[in-house]
Design brief:
Elements: E1 25-36, H1 39-46, H2 55-68, H3 70-73, E2 82-92, E3 97-108, H4 113-131, E4 139-149, E5 156-157
Antiparallel strand pairs: 1-3, 1-4, 2-3, 4-5
């Protein structure tokens, strides 16, 4: 096996990492991403007046559901029991920006970052889908891990 390549076996083949020997720890990941819309779309969203209905409630449910399906979407991702998933939103009226924050938690021998990433991105795509009838040039931007705790590598906090 190549040094540093955890998903490649001694024959150079793709493999799922065996985490059976690792102890379970409490793990948490928080991811943020942003959706940029026009002022008109933002006004309609805030008034709950978009043609498809309640955008943020729908996006929250979609993100939570997506986190639970992560191992079905990402080939080498382990299925996890998720003890908690949430998707939260902050509206920036000045920038016409929706900050999407997804949090996932588990007690497991492997991390929960992918579940938080999938939750955030699916929530963003759902916002896009719910708003596309009134705006086509919506931008999804800057998806990143902002917090990770638990496991061998310890705690990570995004700087700035």
């Amino acid at each position: 096996m190549s040094a540093g390549l955890t998903h490649i076996d001694k024959n150079g083949q793709i493999t799922m990492v065996d985490v059976g020997h690792k102890s379970e720890t409490v793990r948490k990941a928080i991811v943020e991403s942003f959706v940029r819309v026009s002022s008109r779309t933002m006004a309609l969203l805030k008034e709950n007046a978009l043609p498809k209905g309640d955008v943020l409630t729908t996006a929250k449910i979609a993100g939570i559901m997506a986190a639970k399906k992560t191992s079905e979407l990402i080939p080498l991702c382990h299925p996890l029991f998720l003890s908690f998933v949430d998707v939260r939103f902050e509206i920036d009226d000045q920038e016409n920006l929706i900050r999407v924050e997804a949090e996932a938690r588990t007690i497991a021998p492997t991390g929960v970052e992918m579940e938080a990433l999938v939750a955030a991105q699916v929530a963003c795509m759902t916002i896009y889908d719910m708003c596309k009838a009134v705006q086509k040039d919506i931008i999804i931007e800057k998806c990143q891990l902002v917090h990770k705790s638990g496991g061998r590598s310890g705690t990570y906090e995004k700087k700035g």
